[in-house]
Structures are given as C-alpha cells and as structure tokens.
Design brief:
By secondary structure, the chain is of the alpha+beta class. It is built from seven helices and seven strands; from the N terminus they run αββββαβββααααα.
Length: about 250
Amino acid sequence: MVDNNAQQNNSPDIRPKVGVGVLIVKEGKVLLGKRIGSDGARTWSTPGGHLEYRERWDECAQRETREETGLEIKNLRFFAVTNDHYPQSKKHYITIIMLSDWSEGVIENREPEKCEQWEWFQWEELPRPLFTPMNTIVRQGLHPLVVRHDKLVRDRMAEIIESHGDTAITSTADDHEFKHRLRLKLIEEVEEYLESESPEELADILEVIHSLTALHGVNREHLHLIQTKKRDERGGFDNRIVLKETR
C-alpha cells in the first residue's frame, strides 16, 4: 500500500536541497553578510548558495564567494554540516559549511538585491540574529579559529605557541593517561620517520622512548646498559644480515 504522506514528503518539490556556505577567515575575523529576501531576511550569514550539478564543495564555495563578494579564497577545508528546516517557507536544507582563508581582493557587494552589507567580525562578537545554519554551528559550540590537537607535546610547546600570539589550552596527564599517550606518540613519531626518513624524527622517537623507560623506573644510563648487553649477546645490525628461514 502506498503511504500518501510518505509519497508527498518525497515529492521533488519538498525534498532536502543542498547548500554550501563558506566561513572566510582574515586576521582572526570571519566575513558575514546581512541577508535580504524571504528566507532569513535581516539575518547574518556566510557567503554561499546552492551546490550545482557535479560541482565539488570547494568549487561551489569559491564560485559563490566570488559572485557575492569579489574575494578570492584559499586553503578550503570541510568545517561542518547542518540539517535545517524552514517551516515558514516549507524548505529543508542540508548545508555544508566550508572553512577558508582570505587570499586577495577587496569586498564588493555584487548582489545588493540579496545582501545589504558585508562585514568582518570576531567570532566572540558575532552580530545577531544569525541565519539558521550559522546559528546551528554556534549552538553546537563549533569555532573556526580553534585548532584541535588532543595529543601529547613536548614540555615547551605551549610556551612556544603563546610566544607567537596564540593561546594554548592544555591539561596534565596522570600516569595512566601519560603512558597511553606516549604509546600513541611513539606510533606517530615512527610513522613520521617512515614517511620523511629524517634524523630529526629519530631524535623525537628517542625522546618518547626515554619518557617510556622513565615510567618503568629505568633512567637513560640504565637503558644504555641494557642496549649494550643485548648488543654484546646478540650483536647489532651492522652486518645487514637478513634471516630468510630456519630448518
């Protein structure tokens, strides 16, 4: 039996549409425009529009930015996706939010019939009201200027980051978390060495190894003694011997 309600909800006229918005960052601020029109009139929104047939998300973001503001953007990457309903106009949009950096150009309001003005804003000082997709990502606590790392770093990294004018948010691991994160760090550093074959990556591996041995109550000198003993008993790898099989 055909469900008339389901059939109606799947009709081409009211199926979800796909939009692309782009957050453009310049000198720690994002670009927003004050909308004109039936959907979201007088709300603030990013540049953006409908995703065209066979168009990539980044291509759509660049095209819409150029058409609406005259700006060129770079370093495009995915930021968020929202699932929003507009009861008044009976529309449903999936909006893909891209993040980018300003590349060049001066703002031009190229579609004054759709946008009243464009301005740069600090994320903590966004204007109100916000267009629905923007409001959604703000309510979700997303922040385009926050870089999430969540990994173990060397002791002076926070100091170095803040010397460059950024803020480092850190925590101190307990013994259990420290051991777990050191193991992850060892994998990270080994993978980086295998990719780059840089001696500097070997130094990073050694630093992680020394921290792991310290957790086991073994200092660097004792580790060296263990290494020397094993080398005396089994040799090193100087002769490049490859064991093929045993019989």
